[in-house]
Amino acid sequence: MPKLFEYLGLILRFFSDEHEPIHIHAFYEETQLKVEFIIEDGIITSINYKKVKGYEAIPKEKMKDLEILVDTYKYDIIQLWFKYFVLHEKITPRKITVKLK
User: Fold this and answer.
1) By C-alpha distance, which of 7, 9, 14 is closest to 37?
2) Gyration radius of the chain's alpha carbons
3) Chain-centroid distance, C-alpha 92
4) pTM of the full structure
């Protein structure tokens, strides 16, 4: 389960046996959400946040941080998906230490 990003206690990961649509799993403490990227003609048309069965959703007070993180790094996430699942290359996790806006 490769880690992509860590920011303010949030962790974004891929599972090694993922499938399309391109998506990540966002964790905060014992909670989790699935974040799906809907892409049409090479353009991200929407980002959907979905509850994962068996987990509580990420608390509302952390959702803004998650949305900012995903929006800031959405193109990097797509590139990392391609690198990991299509090219089968190793990815290096990033710990974000600056405040995102």
Assistant:
1) 14
2) 13
3) 14
4) 0.91
